[in-house]
Amino acid sequence: MQPQIGRSVPRKEGRDKVTGKATYVDDFSLDGMLYGVTIRTPVARGRIRGITFAPHIRWEEFVIVTAKDIPGHNGVALIDEEQPYLAEHVFHHAEEPVALLAHPDKHLLEEARRAVTVNVEPLPPVLKMEDASRVFKSFLVQKGDVDSVWSGADFVVEGEYSTGAQEQLYIENNGMVAVANANDGVTVWGSMQCPYYVHKALRRLFDLPDHKVRVVQLETGGGFGGKEEYPSMIAGHAALLAWKSGKPVKIMYDRAEDMVATTKRHPSVTRHRTAVSKDGRLLGMEIDFAIDGGAYMTLSPVVLSRGTIHAAGPYYCPNVRVKSRAVATNHPPHGAFRGFGAPQSIFALERHMNRVAEAVGLSPEEFRRRNFIRQGETTATGQTINEEVDLSGLMETAFRRSDYYVKRERFSKTNNETTSKKGIGFAAFMHGAGFTGSGEDYLKSMVGVEATADGRFRVLVSSTEIGQGTNTILCQIAAETLGADYDAVEIAKPDTSSAPNSGPTVASRTCMIVGKLVESAALGLKQMMAQSDARPLRAFSQYTAPPGVRWDDEKYQGDAYGAYGWAVYVAEVTVDMLTWETQVDDFVAVQEVGKVIHPVLAAGQIEGGVAQGIGFALYENVVWRDGRMANNQMTNYIMPTAADLPPIRVYFAETPYAYGPSGAKGIGELPMDGPAPAILNAVEHATGLRVDHAPLTPELLCASS
Amino acid sequence: MRSYVPAYDLIAARNLEHALSMIGDEWKPFAGGTDLMVLYEAGKLPHKKFISIRALPELRGIAVAPDHVTLGALTTYTEVQNHPVLRSEFPLLPRAASETGGIATQNRGTLGGNIVNASPAADTPPTLLVYDADLELISKSGSRWVPYATFHTGYKQMDLRPDELVARIRLPRGRQGWAHYYRKVGTRRAQAISKVCFAGALRKEGGQIVDVRIALGSVAPTVIRCYRTEVALKQEPSVADVTLAQEIAPIDDIRSSAVYRLRVAQNLLAEFQSLLSSS
Amino acid sequence: MRIELNCTVNGVARTTQVYPMARLLDVLREKLRLTGTKEGCGEGECGACSVLIDGALVNSCLLPALQAEGAKITTIEGVAAGEKLHAVQEAFLRYGGAQCGMCTPGMILAAVNLLERTPHPTEAEVRNGLAGNLCRCTGYTKIFEAVVKACES
């Protein structure tokens, strides 16, 4: 039996995808189904005075739902339960849902949507982070005594860095189909990352017990975090209309609605103050990290957590203070997006480290070499790095692959002679896989593997395929452990009526945490099969933390993550000084990931993440007007096309992680962290212009020149 | 899809005469649809009755005569890119067509549709201005030729009666020896709306500009010929950028800023001017 | 008022009653139940709705049904020859050209069309040929590789 791990086996659902047979939510219908739409607020903040229904529509044909129709709690159960499904008296952001309509004719529904007016008394909104008065969450991470370092430092370097909102822009918009009544309960089918999050939210919305709510994930056309928490809202809406009408209801967003109303990456402002010795050693780092949570808490505390823990990066520094906060503004709530706080704080860090290097008179790479964390040293949260880590080695590989030294020197010489300036820059970073600290303990993920009656195997998880390869790698891992053929293993559709809760499909945990559980459940099944011929036969495995992991939630100290992926990314750019446009000409991504389970899928994750990172760095600008996204069309929210992206060259190193399946660590979000700082460092090398905001649009670069 | 589909009517013109008898305030022409359908899907197409002229042979085809090349209004961007005489004598036109939308848009979108959509950010119209295009406007009562340079009279306003159709676009030949320059600065490299579009052509004798055409898009309420800048290029080249700044009126909008557009337009002018030093 | 639309879809003559301004995308998905063609943006920007009309690549979200009269239409469902996949589909499977799969039908049609017009495209020609099809998952790298490999076989 050839090994399954490390082999690029065919994607489990690949054939359906390339033939157009895969069933996404908009391909799914039920008899007698109605369509639903959402009526939303016109401004960013105010009181609702009433809703007017224009007389030319035959309203008696429509199902109309408002907050009064909610059987249980009018709040999306997540970390808090304050975000209403339907606003009733006051509202806190533009496009906040107020009412729902359903009708069998989806075109008439649009006429009806136009005929509803939400009458409001506007109140002045808070639109700038610095004007915010409510803090959703704050953290303080301290190591050593940072106050003692300033007076003795040879250099003290300060900087301020900011990032804007970013839209996930999955090609498939959000959608849900629901069937609901008091007798049978609620069932929803749709596009989502986390069936059990939706399950928990619907139970609370309808005040139903576990077994009366069923959530089924359909083929999902991309998530990137944008379908982590938002699906609970749209599922609740579809279910409320189904509950009231007694009929199935589908709500399918179009692009304009999805962009204007759903979550985006949290905008951030980071301030660094760094004390360094004249031989380039970090003495102290003081970091202030703030993110804009928008109008409701949703996941802001967790985004803040990750951004906070990653803020001081892959360096050893004896004295660190990170103060962070997530504040409330009257924007639609910001939420999960690949990287989840780390792209924001790492952007600031890797721009700032170049600035510190410059102050000391060292090259950016030499400065990194002198401060990269090594095995046995501690991070900002006091986590001892127990594994072999060789960031300098990764950096040299990245430099060799990108011809960094030669190009850095050549570009510096030739740039004076042309209006097209070339630059090369890099970023070094790490990304923790799995939930932070005690998060995985809290989740207690459960996984099953079954030997079926017809001699095959099935993996039982609630982890979802959203393009990243869940189906494929979990089957590979099971096959490898069972000694079975990959083709003999299938994966059951994530359906809360039958799937064990393997936790949400987020946090780069599906391969590392869930995959490890699949491995152990498969091992258990193999042992059971040796003793019993009964079929079907099932074995389960539940998460327990690796030994010796210590985390203090109060002080935010200890082992923040079970494993880190380590990386150095290099970007080569050309900046056209006539138009201030930056083109990325070449991109090298080097990362150490434990073990590559599936070479094509793993490279695909890095390439896709880098592409999104390039978008974050240069193109994807959310234009806000009065707290509402004004450029909510694909024409005006600019995502890179095939013609804009460079060859993305991916290289893996492997230092097996003892608690990952075959040694694998999580990699899904890692690639999001490196591109923006690497690119802006390259632009500064090319032009000498220093801009500390992403996206670095041509207009911004022009304004700084 | 935000419009109420059953409320819209689209009929096919049986022939050109039928089309011309129908077009007016009630029935409006529908060609490739790449602009109208976008508005329709956004719920922003108030007009509801359209007559499809897309199949009319009289409005298709590219005719090459000794003094002129005449394009039917229904010529698609794909057809423009593939035509050998356009590529050799009017290279800015196929170049602009290749940068309009993507391949799928280029297969359906038409020059005539682009002209009457009258976006100031359109990519091919500046090249038509540079090439001194004339438009033939036809109606049930006859036809007339107008210089494209005077066709656009204001933002989305044009010298076109409701009962008229753009039928043909005529380009005078005889541009041997001209140097051509086109640059569209968009939001990205493909499938982009322009932030600044610069089309220019010039003829030199003995290192001096003796004839020049400059037209810009996205810097005024319409695409514009910059006549005063053309004069400055011939008479006072060192201050041509100042003249340009006075002649265009860029704005801040959802895609870009007035300051950026102005500086880029001036830089592109300078790049165009540097065509002088190359042969 | 509805009209009768006659066209050939994946080699089969089809007649449907449709509104003349119905989007071809909706006629395909809802009337003909060919749900392989996807809606990603409804504004002709993403290419997820791409089909072939008389051999030309077109965004079906921008085509009114009336203008599809008499057309020969190919959707993703018509790319394979029964159970035998097209070389582009095989290559997408082999080289990781599809991740979430939502852009995939349109991307495959764009690639098939490109190879029909340019049987041995350079990488730059592939980039430009697919520039009207947006993919959010792959960064395009493996899509290009798949297309280049497809024309080698």
Question: What does the model show?
Answer:
The complex is a heterotrimer of chains A (705), B (279) and C (153). Chain A is an alpha+beta fold and 705 residues long. Chain A has three domains: 25-125 and 169-261, Aldehyde oxidase/xanthine dehydrogenase, molybdopterin binding domain (Aldehyde Oxidoreductase, domain 4, 2-Layer Sandwich); 268-436 and 555-703, Aldehyde oxidase/xanthine dehydrogenase, molybdopterin binding domain (Aldehyde Oxidoreductase, domain 4, 2-Layer Sandwich), CATH 3.30.365; 439-542, Aldehyde oxidase/xanthine dehydrogenase, molybdopterin binding domain (Aldehyde Oxidoreductase, domain 4), CATH 3.30.365.10. The longest helix of chain A has 22 residues, at 510-531. The mean pLDDT of chain A is 97. Chain B folds into three domains: 5-52; 57-172, 2-Layer Sandwich (Uridine Diphospho-n-acetylenolpyruvylglucosamine Reductase, domain 3), CATH 3.30.465.10; 179-276, 2-Layer Sandwich (Enolase-like, domain 1), CATH 3.30.390.50. Chain B has helices at residues 16-22, 36-41, 77-82, 84-89, 92-98, 103-108, 111-117, 125-130, 227-235, 240-247, 258-273, and strands at 9-12, 28-30, 49-52, 62-64, 68-72, 134-139, 142-147, 152-154, 157-158, 165-172, 179-186, 194-205, 208-217, 224-225. The N and C termini of chain B lie far apart (52 Å). The longest helix of chain B has 16 residues, at 258-273. Chain B is of the alpha+beta class and 279 residues long. The N and C termini of chain C lie far apart (49 Å). A five-stranded mixed beta sheet of chain C has the order 2-1-5-3-4, sandwiched between helices. The model of chain C has no long low-confidence stretch (mean pLDDT 97). The longest helix of chain C has 14 residues, at 104-117. Chain C has two domains: 3-78, Beta-grasp domain (Ubiquitin-like (UB roll), Roll), CATH 3.10.20.30; 87-152, DNA polymerase, domain 1 (Orthogonal Bundle). With 153 residues, chain C is α+β, with helices and mostly antiparallel strands. Chain C is 33% helix and 16% strand. Chain C is built from five helices and five strands. Chains in contact: A-B, A-C, B-C. The interface between B and C is medium-sized, with 30 and 33 residues.
